[in-house]
Amino acid sequence: MFGDISQVSIFFLILAAFSAGLVDAIAGGGGLIQLPALLIGLPQASTVEVLGTNKVASIFGTSASAVMYRRSVRTDGRFLATMAIPAFVGSVLGALSASTIPTQSMRPIVFLLLVAVAIYTFKKPNLGAIEKLRHDIKKRFSISAMAGLVIGFYDGIFGPGTGSFLMLTLIYLGFAFLSASAIAKVVNVSTNLGAIVVFGFHGAVIWQVALVLAASNICGGMLGAKLAIRGGSTLIRKVFLLVTLALILKVGIDTLANW
Fold first, then answer.
1. φ and ψ at 165, to 5 degrees?
2. d(CA 119, CA 122)
């Protein structure tokens, strides 16, 4: 496969993977960088191969940043499992449904949801600044499990904005941006893994490219996690808003292009 890719393209993809890992570790949205780069850098690959390759590269960077967060941010293991396991199941179901459900019809809905996320976050400057959990344990766990299943399904079938939706759910439950980002990374590993199981089974992964980009994604993810831990919830909120606005622009353009 490398014989078909120029050295310039390889360098471009490695740089994109590093940048994606960096941004994704702080507030999600790495797919905004890495996926378009793969579509440009691998013009002869099918869309399914690009999606599968992107997921494999991403899971390494997301796992690295999740480990970094776990070392510095204390999170409840039971809560993580309650959200991550349904997210894995949802992602598998979503990836299996990817060929039967038209993703074009989802874009306007996702666009409106992202706009709502951006407005809600912008209008509440203290949102996620202090950790103050809402609801009793049973209800909090139930909401997280349902959200994990739904967002996991969405990530398996479509994907853009997954990090934003995970973060907003966790912040609604009362987590600070830093804790929310730490939890979201673990859940995102589950959604990536679920999609990889399906894509890998169908041979839709260009492994040589995926593993090279994975190394770069890990480096970016580790640096991003370090910056996020140092900058705390204030930095993560700012990056979160920027990523969400970029997602709104991307999904909006895609929606208009398909009308």
1. -70, -40
2. 5
HSE toward the beta carbon, residue 184, CA cutoff 13 A: 30
Q: Look up tokens 């709104």; give the residue.
A: 248
Give the C-alpha separation, 86 to 208, whole Å: 30
**Residue located via tokens 């895609």:** 254
Distance between CA atoms of residues 190 and 235, nearest Å: 25
Q: Count CB atoms within 10 A of the CB of residue 120.
A: 13
Residue 187 CA to chain centroid, in angstroms?
9
Q: How do residues 55-104 score in pLDDT, each as one tens digit?
A: 889 899 999 999 999 888 888 889 999 999 999 999 999 888 876 766 66
Residue corresponding to tokens 């705390």: 232
The model's pLDDT over 199-237, given as tens digits with 9 standing for 90+, comes to 777 777 888 889 999 999 999 999 999 999 999 988 888
* Cα–Cα distance for residue pair 228/183, rounded to 1 Å: 13
* pLDDT number for residue 78: 93
How many residues does this entry show for the chain?
259
Axis-axis angle for helices 207-257, 7-27 (nearest 10): 70
* Average pLDDT over every residue of 121-149: 89
Q: What is the pLDDT of residue 148?
A: 96
- Name the nearest CA neighbour of 241 among 132, 92, 123, 153: 123
Predicted pLDDT at 147:
96
